[in-house]
């Protein structure tokens, strides 16, 4: 144990049990460490082994300049003995076997001898980088040329390594993020646009930004979207968005804003013609009063959850701004905006082209009746909480129907096939039709709606949750209720050429053969981008494969609860959401 | 179209407001819609003829980052789940303005 002897100059304390055990089994910690160091060095020098070997002779000459011939002879003899010893060692045999005869015995033995002459922990050595003399420790790092480094240089090297590693982690986009993007329907290929990347970066550093300068308004809009999604739109960050020259503001999450912040918006931006404020919980009567006093240009108003505004002020607002308003979107209002207010709105806002009322608890039949008097309405979206009278709804659809481009009726559970008939007879210019959560319309009603309908093909269709809700009869009645096989076929025949978005979630009485017919070989839906077929248990891998083939522009396929999907191969650029596996294998389109 | 592009030089020069010049492959520079339209031979703009785009309102530091993005974009062309490029925070607003101008 030559190694042991060399450590004689060290102070020795009591042995631990482990050390004793290792010693009894002929395992030495020093040797393990040494082997480790050697392996490190070997890895570094694998490519330059040849060179090293060639240099050995020269090194010898250089190192031993000036020694006497006798000394030289002695040294050579020792060397030969050492080499013979090495050649007999186990380590040598192991190494030779590993190299598979690439090098000669002599070369390997010499290499090993050279390694042994490397200083061990506890010895002194000159640092490879700075040349200082230092004590070798087990923590001394190997420098770029194979020599050891002093404590200071070792630390610098370790720091560098750490830094590069940290940077790598920073730029890597994690699996979790990828899945999150996929759920958002982002399966795009290649890098994000530089604008998008910078916008995200700006949002990351929003607290260090003092002003946006003259960013164009569409970028401000995007920034607002990101900040609101992260819920960091505070009074401080709001100030960044207030610029007198702009004429629109979008705040998707105003929950952290106080009353005076809303006033500030209208104080700084008197030219606003488009206001979109959601979660406006602190918006009060006096804000509306302030707005009415300053703003004279408002055309487009969207407010969400502004529950502290009283009916009196809603009416005042409609009366004052009425003739100018072109678009009103109000949602989540549960203690104001009653029938009378909506009546005032409909009488004052005579040029209204777009109206959306969602979850306004107080609006009922009379409101619906009032809406039928809006003669310039082009887009109507209603999501009613109260039950409505079928006749009144029919009357409204008949009177505003002919001009409508958008008709969205959510949560109306009473209407039956007569509503579909009214749509068939009156609506002639629709591009978007939503009618969801209803269990009274029948499949035959849908067939009639889409047969010989003078309306041009629809672009955006949502018939989600149109199904019979009888739990005791999961297959549904024989005469299918809701959108079922025939209705869907009729829909695709009518609108297939232009359709871009289709949502038929939970219309569970559509049969597999209907899907086969819709997505058969000769069918093509050239514009279909988004398709939601969640909870259609008849859909299987074959049907989905047909879908990918028939819809060349498909970007997003939502398939929650489609339990027959097993092994889908998703084309590049399509986001499959809710499939059986979190990440379905992605294949290039050419495989189809 | 392909005949005319093949006759054009392979590299174009982008000049920043403070006089730095960046010589980049034409295909990468055309990641930017603005530069692509500048260089479109059918436009007969002087940029298209000389292959040299002077971007007066973009500083050298920012333009360097933009060129880095061009290469990054080219490199990640047909890949999914591309990691974001590293953008120093102090540069992000200026870079955002430049990116908006360049339609990138």
List the helices and strands and how they pair.
The complex is a heterodimer of chains A (592) and B (104).
Chain A lengths: L1 H5 L10 H8 L4 H17 L3 H15 L5 H20 L1 H10 L5 H12 L7 E3 L6 E3 L15 H21 L3 H9 L10 H11 L12 H13 L5 H7 L6 E4 L7 H10 L5 E4 L7 H10 L5 E5 L6 H11 L5 E7 L5 H10 L5 E7 L4 H7 L7 E5 L6 H11 L5 E5 L6 H10 L5 E5 L6 H8 L9 E3 L22 H11 L5 E3 L8 H7 L11 E3 L8 H10 L5 E3 L11 E2 L3 E3 L8 E2 L5
Parallel strand pairs in A: 3-4, 4-5, 5-6, 6-7, 7-8, 8-9, 9-10, 10-11, 11-12, 12-13, 13-14, 14-16, 15-17
Antiparallel strand pairs in A: 1-2
Chain B lengths: L1 H6 L3 E6 L4 E5 H4 L3 H7 L6 H5 L1 E4 L4 H16 L16 H11 L2
Parallel strand pairs in B: 1-3
Antiparallel strand pairs in B: 1-2
Helix pairs in contact in B: 5-6
Summarize this entry quickly.
The complex is a heterodimer of chains A (592) and B (104). Chain A is of the alpha/beta class. Chain A has 23 helices and 17 strands.
Helix content of chain B: 40-55%
The CATH homology group name of chain B: Potassium Channel Kv1.1, Chain A
State the end-to-end distance of chain A. Answer: 69 Å
Main sheet: strand order of chain A: 3-4-5-6-7-8-9-10-11-12-13-14-16
Fraction in beta strands of chain B:
5-15%
How would you sum up the global shape of chain A?
elongated
What's the CATH H-level homologous superfamily of the domain at 408-591 in chain A?
Answer: Ribonuclease Inhibitor
SSE succession of chain B = HEEHHHEHH
- Percent of sequence in beta strands of chain A: 5-15%
Main sheet of chain B, how many strands, which sense, barrel? 3 strands, mixed
Q: Give me the CATH fold name of chain B.
A: Potassium Channel Kv1.1, Chain A
Mean pLDDT over the residues of chain A = 85
How many independent structural domains of chain B? 1
* Oligomeric assembly: heterodimer
The value of Rg of chain B in angstroms is: 14 Å
CATH class of chain B: Alpha Beta
Q: Give the N-to-C terminal Cα separation of chain B.
A: 22 Å
The total count of helices of chain A amounts to: 23
Structural Rg of chain A: 39 Å
Fold-level CATH name of the domain at 408-591 in chain A: Leucine-rich repeat, LRR (right-handed beta-alpha superhelix)
Q: Average pLDDT value of chain B?
A: 87
Domain DNA repair protein rhp7 treble clef (chain A): 121-158
Pfam families (chain A): zf_Tbcl_Rhp7
GO biological process, one term (chain A): SCF-dependent proteasomal ubiquitin-dependent protein catabolic process
Biased composition (Basic residues) (chain A): 165-175
């Amino acid at each position: 144990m030559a190694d042991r002897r060399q450590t004689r100059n060290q102070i020795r304390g009591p042995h631990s049990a482990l050390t004793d055990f290792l010693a009894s089994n002929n395992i030495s910690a020093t040797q393990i460490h040494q082997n480790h160091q050697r392996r490190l060095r070997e890895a570094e020098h694998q490519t330059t082994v040849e060179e090293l070997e060639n240099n050995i002779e020269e090194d010898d000459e250089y190192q031993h300049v000036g020694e006497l011939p006798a000394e030289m002879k002695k040294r050579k003899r020792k060397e030969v003995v050492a080499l013979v010893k090495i050649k007999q060692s186990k380590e040598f045999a192991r190494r030779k076997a590993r190299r598979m005869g690439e090098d000669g015995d002599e070369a390997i033995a010499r290499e090993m001898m050279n390694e042994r002459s490397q200083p061990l922990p506890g010895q002194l050595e000159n640092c490879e980088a700075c040349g200082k003399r230092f004590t070798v420790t087990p923590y001394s790092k190997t420098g770029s040329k194979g020599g050891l480094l002093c404590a200071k240089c070792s630390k610098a090297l370790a720091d560098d390594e750490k830094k590069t590693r940290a940077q790598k982690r920073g730029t890597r986009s994690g699996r979790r993020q990828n899945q999150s993007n996929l759920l958002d329907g982002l399966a795009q290929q290649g890098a994000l646009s530089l604008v998008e990347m910078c916008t995200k970066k700006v949002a990351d550093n929003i607290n260090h930004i003092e002003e946006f300068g003259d960013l164009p308004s569409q970028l401000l809009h995007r920034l607002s979207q990101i900040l609101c999604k992260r819920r960091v739109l505070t009074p401080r960050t709001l100030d960044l968005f207030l610029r007198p020259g702009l004429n629109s503001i979008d705040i998707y999450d105003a929950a952290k804003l106080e009353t005076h912040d809303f006033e500030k918006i209208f104080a700084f931006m008197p030219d606003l013609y488009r206001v979109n404020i959601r979660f406006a919980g602190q918006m009060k009567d006096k804000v509306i009063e302030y707005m009415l006093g300053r703003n004279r240009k408002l055309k487009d108003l969207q407010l969400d959850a502004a529950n502290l505004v009283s009916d009196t002020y809603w009416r005042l607002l409609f009366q004052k701004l009425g003739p100018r308003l072109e678009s009103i979107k109000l949602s989540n209002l549960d203690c104001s905006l009653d029938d009378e207010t909506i009546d005032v709105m409909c009488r004052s806002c005579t040029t209204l082209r777009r109206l959306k009322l969602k979850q306004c608890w107080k609006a009922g039949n009379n409101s619906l009746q009032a809406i039928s008097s809006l003669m310039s309405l082009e887009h109507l979206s209603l999501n009613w909480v109260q039950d409505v009278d079928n006749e009144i709804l029919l009357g409204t659809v008949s009177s505003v129907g002919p001009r409508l481009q958008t008709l969205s009726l959510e949560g109306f559970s009473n209407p039956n096939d007569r509503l579909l008939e009214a749509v068939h007879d009156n609506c002639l210019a629709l591009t978007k039709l939503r009618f969801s959560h209803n269990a009274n319309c029948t499949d035959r009603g849908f067939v009639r709606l889409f047969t010989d309908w003078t309306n041009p093909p629809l672009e955006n269709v949502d018939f989600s949750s149109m199904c019979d809700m009888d739990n005791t009869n999961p297959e549904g009645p024989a005469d299918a209720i809701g959108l079922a096989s025939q209705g869907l076929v009729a829909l695709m025949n009518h609108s297939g050429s232009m359709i871009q978005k289709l949502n038929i979630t939970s219309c569970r009485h559509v049969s597999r053969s209907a899907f086969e017919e819709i997505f058969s070989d000769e069918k093509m839906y050239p514009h279909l981008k988004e398709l939601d077929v969640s909870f259609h248990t008849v859909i299987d891998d074959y049907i989905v494969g047909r879908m990918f083939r028939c819809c060349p522009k498909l970007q997003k396929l939502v398939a929650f609860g489609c339990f027959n999907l097993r092994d889908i191969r998703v084309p590049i650029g399509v986001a499959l959401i809710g499939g059986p596996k979190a990440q379905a294998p992605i294949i290039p389109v050419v495989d189809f | 179209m392909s005949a005319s592009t093949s006759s054009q030089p392979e590299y174009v020069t982008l000049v920043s407001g403070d006089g730095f010049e960046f010589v980049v492959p034409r295909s990468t520079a055309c990641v930017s819609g603005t530069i692509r339209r500048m260089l479109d031979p059918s436009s007969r703009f002087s940029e298209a003829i000389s292959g040299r785009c002077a971007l007066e309102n973009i500083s050298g530091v920012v333009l360097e980052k933009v060129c880095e993005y061009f290469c990054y974009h080219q490199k990640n062309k047909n890949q999914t789940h591309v990691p974001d490029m590293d953008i120093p925070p102090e540069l992000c607003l200026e870079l955002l303005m430049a990116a908006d101008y360049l339609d990138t």
